[in-house]
Amino acid sequence: MNNTIFIFIFLIIIAISCKEEPVGQQPLDNIAPGMVTDVSVENTPGGAILNYKLPEDEDLLYVKAVYQLKDGVDSETRASLYSDALSVVGFGDTSEREVKVIAVDRSRNESEPVTVKISPLEPNVLSIGRTLLLKQDFGGVRATWENPNQSEISVVILYEDNNNEYVPVETFYSSTVNGQGSILGMDTLSYNWSYYVQDRWENKSEIKYDTITPLYETEFDRFQFKAVDLSGDMGAFPGWGKEKMWNGIWGTDEGYSSPGGTGIWPHSVTVDLGVVGKISRFRLFQRMGQYTFAEGNLRKFKIYGSQELDPSGNWDSWTLLMDCESIKPSGLPIGENSNEDIDLAQNGEDFFGSAANPPVRYIRILVNQTWAGGDNFQITEFKIFGDNR
Q1: DSSP conformation class of 301
Q2: How confident is the model at residue 17 (pLDDT cuts 50, 70, 90)?
Q3: Contacts of 339 (CB under 8 A, 6+ apart)
Q4: Torsion of CA 248, 252, 257, 259, to 10 degrees
Q5: pTM for the full model?
Q6: How many Cα atoms are found within 13 Å in the side-chain-facing hemisphere of 277?
Q7: Is 287 helix (H, G, I), strand (E, B) or coil?
Q8: What share of the chain is helix, strand, coil (3-state, %, to 5)?
Q9: What is the overall mean pLDDT for the chain?
Q10: Is 389 helix (H, G, I), strand (E, B) or coil?
Q11: Which of 84, 118, 152 is the last residue of a domain?
């Protein structure tokens, strides 16, 4: 009897549910939605923003723009029914183009297209390409470029091989405002170079050509480094001695730290390199983990050099070699780091000196600001490059 009652009730529930209206998806039809109206165009670098008025169709799903980035290849951008604007991007020049704006409903019916003309402003890839320079450097060449809109771009560097063909040697991916990248470890021979900027739509800037001969460069032998204590320099926090700045180990809890709470600022430390030479680069490794681009890691500092050591600590005998500022590629707030930020901190941030600087044996690091702005600083490791012959 109980089983019979249960089956009877179950059949009644099924019968009632079959009579209910469907929930969610509206019934499909073959009726096209109305067209968008009042379309206006705001041209942007390499694209345009289209503003429009939506049709009053209850089953409207989205609006799309159809256009060609390259001849014969259609591209498409969509905007939801909750937006009255969409962007078209990826054009490699400023030529006038047609864009079709189409409304689409939930049955995937499409309205008649509204065709508008756009004239993109100069694409970022071209304006960045004009600023791209390749310069002679110690041990190779250094590329620099300006990217004020922080576009995602790649800088492609090629050189001519023995078969008289240009082959890729390095590609730098970046979105930082003031970009730079170095190709190092090269012999002091004359090389023919070509280089250009490319964006993610494979648009390219004008290809540039140069013949450049790298300057001699080698890494200074860290086993010859010694700490020097001068008047006015900082001591070390217990367990964070100065010799840890060149012990070949870096990471989260390894390195040198000046003592905090001294009430003295800025802080300085002095190092004997053990040999006289011209310094081309100072490579700084940050304390990692939660300290990356934060806490006592160096943000603004200067590097001075001298051939002779004045035991008094007077700064008059020191020559300014580098005025340095650590730049976080992403520009994100402290505590937020992109993959590019982490890679730079882990692999070391290079600061470059001039070939016109005098040869030195001693360096003095003067720290003016850390990322946290506190009263102590930390260096987990540094390396010195240049001509020590």
Answers
A1: E
A2: very low
A3: none
A4: -160
A5: 0.66
A6: 21
A7: coil
A8: 10, 45, 45
A9: 90
A10: coil
A11: 118
| List of residues 6+ apart from 164 with CB closer than 8 A | none
Q: How many C-beta atoms surround the C-beta of residue 377 within 10 A?
A: 28
Per the rule left: phi > 0, alpha: psi between -120 and 50, beta: everything else, 263 is left
**Tell me, what amino acid is at 367?**
V
Q: Which amino acid is at 225?
A: F
* Side chain identity at residue 72, one-letter code: G
In a domain, 14, yes or no: no
Quick: pLDDT tens for 336-389.
999 999 999 999 999 998 888 999 999 999 999 999 988 889 999 999 999 988
Closest CA to 44 of 120, 125, 151: 120
Are 344 and 237 part of one and the same domain? yes
Contact status, residue 295 vs residue 374, Cβ threshold 8 Å: yes
CA distance 362 to 233: 14
Q: What is the pLDDT of residue 11?
A: 52
Task: Calculate the alpha carbon distances from 175 to 203, 231, 236, 297, 389 in Å.
Answer: 16, 43, 37, 23, 38
The CATH number for 163's domain is: 2.60.40.10
Measure the CA–CA gap between 58 and 79, rounded to whole angstroms: 16
Same domain, 43 and 130: no
Residue with tokens 């003095």: 364
Write the pLDDT tens digit of every residue in 160-216: 999 999 999 999 999 989 998 989 888 899 999 999 999 999 999 999 999 999 988
Which structural domain, as residue segments, surrounds residue 360? 218-387
Q: How far is CA 292 from CA 174, 303, 376, in A?
A: 19, 22, 15
Q: What is the CA radius of gyration of the chain?
A: 31
